[in-house]
Structure formats: structure tokens, C-alpha cells
Design brief:
The structure is a single chain. The chain is 47% helix and 11% strand. It has 307 residues and is α/β, with parallel strands linked by helices. It folds into two domains: 7-44 and 57-107, no CATH class; 116-283, no CATH class. The strands form two sheets. The chain has a five-stranded mixed β-sheet, sandwiched between helices. Helix 3 (20-40) crosses helix 6 (92-107), helix 4 (64-77) packs across helix 6 (92-107) and helix 5 (81-88) crosses helix 6 (92-107). It is globular and about 80 Å long. Pfam families: DDE_Tnp_4, HTH_Tnp_4.
């Protein structure tokens, strides 16, 4: 039984999570890279693109716009491929292939830069260079996403067990500005890895060294980073020793509250990401989560920049 739903309805913001204007911009931006990847593909490994006459070859059951819309609906609501195939009137395998083509293109876009149309940030050094040029104080934090437990008797099974969540998770590091706009996300690591280790592996120490004017607000989980980069990696003040004067305790509480109020915007950025259902609990292959998170972060940064 085939069910054909109006494509204009499927492109609504309630399904895709973005406005029609945003969708039109994505179509203009990604159509050419998608076509280039389609023409290259596996034939590029054989020495060049496939040679055939203009107009030859099989016709696509899903045009590019429908592929993009299906991918957005999958990211937003985590609908099964079979359900999307029923809505678009195609086979499940066609939806699977479409999502596999579009998701990497969304992930490679990076995050939008506020007040800089056309400029996007893709690496941590890019973010630090932007922050130093604009005099922006960054906020950094990590979030964990529950994933499936690896099968028994397979190596590395314990690395996904989070000591904090008591679940199998993967950890993503996010950088935001003072208004909660996502500037960068990556460093997806197994949940057992500490937050500081994850961001160190991304080269944050080198970034602090080359951009000495950049300050980053952090929580208590990054005390080691604050110790190594004083004045740049800023964590909450340490609690006074027992028996300290009441005035000093009150000052500590006030300073800690001020730091938390300044850093809360990165928590708002994480909340924006978790509104996309695929990031509330990941039930698919773990190696596809990094691209999914980067794709969603890029889409959220577009919306926050235009807001």
C-alpha cells in the first residue's frame, strides 16, 4: 500500500525543524556539491568520472530537494527509513541511500558565524582565531549521548561506559559564544574518556598558545586545563577552606554565581541540540554519530545566527 503525502507538507518547519527560507538556502548551497559527489563517487577511484551521454542513466526516484527534506525529517524526528519511504512513495533502501549522501554534506558545512554571512567555522583553531579577532569570550562544555552497547566479547566494549551517566555513551564537546550561538562542535569520544582529555586531543593547548588573548569559560570538570592555562581557561573559584571568614564564603558564593550565569549560554546551546530527537538517544551505528551531531549543530547555528 503506497501513501503519497504532499511534499509541501513534508517541507514544513514542524517536520524539518527549519524554515522554508532556510531550506531554500540549503538547496542552493548543497545542490552543486551533491551533484559533484554523485558524478564522482566510486568512479573517481578508477581514474576519473563516469563517461556517459547527457541524459543517460537511471532516473532518480527522489530529486535532490526530497532527499534533503527526508534527511532533515530523519534528523529532527528520528523516523525509521521504512516510514520515510512510505511517506515519499519509495523503497526503504532509497531513503537509506539518500540520507547517506546528504548527511555528510550537512556535516561538512561547519557552524555559521554571527554577523558574517558566508563565513563558517569548521575547526577549533578557526574558532580561536575568530574569537581573538572579534574579542569574544568563549564558553566550552561537553555533553553525553546514550548509544548502544557494543556486542559481547568484542574489544573496547568498556570504553563507552560513562562513569558519570552509568550508561554507554559518546561525548561531544561544544563551543558557544556569549549569546549561546554554537561556534564549533566535535571531539566525539567514547563516554569513558574525561572531558579534559577529549578537548586536549583536539589541540586546545596549541590554540591557547597561539591565541593568548582568548578566554574560555569552563565548569569544574576542566580544573586541570585551568591549572595549565591560567588566565585563559577560566573555571569557577575554589571553595574556601573550612573555618573561613563568613565574608569570604559569601564572596565565593557570589563569584561562583556570576561565573555560572556567564557560562549558562553554552548549556542553552546544548539544549538546542538535544531538541533534535536523534541526539536524545542514539540507536544507530556509532560511527555515524559524529556526522549527525555536526550536521545538527550546523543547522542550529544557522537558525541562531538568523534569529
Amino acid at each position: 500500500m503506497a501513501i503519497m503525502v504532499n511534499r509541501a507538507v513534508l517541507a514544513h518547519r514542524l517536520f524539518t525543524g527549519i524554515t522554508r527560507q532556510h531550506l531554500a538556502c540549503l538547496v542552493d548551497e548543497l545542490a552543486a556539491p551533491w551533484q559533484a559527489a554523485l558524478e564522482g563517487g566510486r568512479h573517481s577511484a578508477r581514474g576519473g568520472s563516469r563517461k556517459r551521454a547527457a541524459g543517460a542513466g537511471a532516473r532518480h526516484q527522489l530529486v535532490f530537494v526530497d532527499r534533503l527534506v527526508a534527511t532533515l525529517i530523519h534528523l529532527r524526528h528520528d523516523l525509521p527509513h521504512s516510514v520515510l519511504g512510505l511517506l515519499f512513495g519509495v523503497d526503504r533502501s532509497t531513503i537509506t541511500r539518500a540520507i547517506g549522501e546528504i548527511r555528510p554534506l550537512l556535516a561538512e558545512r561547519g557552524c555559521a558565524v554571527p554577523d558574517r554571512p558566508g563565513l563558517r567555522l569548521r575547526t577549533l583553531p578557526d574558532v580561536f582565531a575568530y574569537a581573538q579577532a572579534e574579542g569574544i569570550e568563549l564558553r566550552l562544555d561537553a555533553t553525553e549521548i546514550q548509544v548502544r552497547r557494543p556486542p559481547a566479547n568484542r574489544g573496547g566494549r568498556r570504553v563507552f561506559v560513562s562513569g558519570k551517566k552509568k550508561q554507554n555513551t559518546m561525548k561531544a564537546t561544544v563551543v558557544a559564544d556569549w549569546r549561546g550561538r554554537t561556534l564549533w562542535t566535535d571531539a566525539l569520544r567514547p563516554g569513558r574518556m574525561h572531558d579534559v582529555t577529549a578537548i586536549r586531543n583536539e589541540g586546545i593547548a596549541v590554540c591557547f598558545q597561539h591565541f593568548p588573548d582568548v578566554e574560555v569559560l569552563l565548569d569544574d570538570g576542566y580544573l586541570g586545563l585551568s591549572r595549565d592555562h591560567r588566565g585563559q581557561a577560566i573555571t569557577p573559584p575554589r571553595k574556601p577552606r573550612p573555618g573561613a571568614l563568613p565574608g569570604r564564603v559569601q564572596q565565593w558564593e557570589s563569584d561562583r554565581h556570576d561565573h555560572s550565569s556567564d557560562r549558562i549560554t553554552v548549556e542553552h546551546a546544548l539544549a538546542d541540540h538535544k531538541r533534535w530527537k536523534q541526539l536524545t538517544r542514539w540507536t544507530h551505528r556509532r560511527d555515524r554519530l559524529p556526522d549527525t551531531y555536526r550536521a545538527i549543530a550546523g543547522l542550529v547555528s544557522d537558525r541562531r545566527t538568523k534569529a
